[in-house]
Amino acid sequence: MVLRFVHLSDIHFGQGSAVKRAIDTDVRKALLRDCQESAERFGKADSLLITGDIAYSGTKPEYVEAANWLDRLCEACGCLRANVQMVPGNHDVNWSHVDATARILRSNIRGSARPEEAHETLAEVCIGVEGFGECALTRPLLDYANFAEQYGTPPDSDAKPFWTKKLSLGHDVAARVYGLTTSLVSDNQDKKVPVPQWLGASQMTALGSSESEIAIALMHHPLKCFGDEALIAPYIRRRVTLLLTGHEHLPEIATCVDHATGHSRLEVTAGAVTPEEDGRGYVFTYNWLELSLIADKERQGLKVELWPRVWQAGAETFEADAIRLQGRESVVAELACPSLRLAEQGRTPLEGSPVVDDAAAPTDQDAMTWNEQEYGELRLLFWRAEWQERLRILVELKLFPAGTAGPLPQVMERRALDQVAQAGRLAELGRALHPSNPESPNPFVGQGEVKNGD
Ligand SMILES: [Fe+2]
């Protein structure tokens, strides 16, 4: 069983001068063609993984442009358009929503003498907040969070600003993907003066370890960017087998082995699809990658094959990054996971290994499987509607009484929509989304009930 992904980062919709936008448009068109060729050669992609900076200023119009392009990219690589997983970057922060309280909090956290102090401040600001975007630090990420709702990967809440999903690798083993929010204290000066980011304890401890899972983390900022690096980096590195990041506009690949445990990991910085104008010239990059389980008797782990792609300005195409890979087209990493137990081996609790706390996961999103594609498509259509239309649908489905005032908090809408899916009411949701043409064939009618009834 092979999982195929397109790893993209730093797309920066909305950036730059007219000339730069024209260049970026050409590059993104070429990326569509390149992904289509990869899908024809290797097979359809299962998902797009985007490690932040989707927008340039974190505004709604930029996300509308991003959604249109992502639709075309999904079509090009054969991926369902709802199967896009993403995390925010510093350019996904909408600076017009940064208020005086946010500025004070940011400087207070960044000025903390010890990482623990900053973690305490982050926890106090966000403690017990069930929605996302309710505190000063997360409010500037609300347009991003609304966009990410389309794809089922919004930061869950201010208290737990991350998401997690499980993808089957076969042999009763899952890849658990963690999407972390690293831009909570991002600043509009981030690119001019390197300033530390802070992850916070709630996200650090979200990463569990399990004998039936391989952990993959998506983060915008690489670990070296964090003020709490000394605290969080060893913790994350012990648990993660594949770490995908962005932010740095030059791509990097590194494999590391923990000689004490035998656990190995791969850290990949994607580079930028369309970097900013910073006077250093442009290097446009992205990665195609494939994951499969290593399930020999002697060894268990994750095989990752990575095809780094780089823009060739003369030919106006993406090609293999042969210079960086010294003539090769791809790099293969076989990552040992000594704590993994395959189903036929039987599983026993690992001594000294932290217990996986599924309650720590923000929602039931970890139950997401690829056969929930109908729900994914309907969720995408639902969140692309304006709030008035969404409220009409939720009232029509009797999830809220007539006369309910809106807009509703995002978390309430998400929970209501999840209730619809869990109750097997996808056909009703499909009809509610297309009230103007009830005669048109609805591909979801009946399928939701059948699937959920299985
Ligand atoms: Fe960035």
What does the secondary structure layout of this molecule look like, with pairings?
Elements: E1 2-8, H1 18-42, E2 47-51, H2 60-77, E3 84-87, H3 100-110, H4 115-126, H5 142-149, E4 162-170, E5 173-180, H6 201-204, E6 213-218, H7 229-239, E7 240-245, E8 252-257, E9 264-269, E10 285-295, E11 300-312, E12 317-320, E13 331-336, H8 373-384, H9 387-396, H10 410-422, H11 426-433, H12 447-453
Parallel strand pairs: 1-2, 2-3, 5-6, 6-7, 7-9
Antiparallel strand pairs: 1-10, 4-5, 8-9, 10-11, 11-12, 11-13
Helix pairs in contact: 1-2, 3-4, 8-11
Bound molecules: fe (ii) ion.
Fe (ii) ion binds at residues 10, 53, 89-91, 220, 247.
Report on this model:
It is a single chain. The protein is α/β, with parallel strands linked by helices and 454 residues long. The protein has 2 domains: 2-345, Purple Acid Phosphatase, chain A, domain 2; 359-433, no CATH class. It has helices spanning 18-42, 60-77, 100-110, 115-126, 142-149, 201-204, 229-239, 373-384, 387-396, 410-422, 426-433, 447-453; strands spanning 2-8, 47-51, 84-87, 162-170, 173-180, 213-218, 240-245, 252-257, 264-269, 285-295, 300-312, 317-320, 331-336. Strands 1, 2, 3, 10, 11, 12 and 13 form a 7-stranded mixed sheet that branches. Strands 4-5-6-7-9-8 form a 6-stranded mixed sheet. Strand 6 (213-218), helix 7 (229-239) and strand 7 form a beta-alpha-beta unit. Helix 1 (18-42) runs parallel beside helix 2 (60-77), helix 3 runs antiparallel to helix 4 and helix 8 (373-384) packs parallel to helix 11. It binds fe (ii) ion.
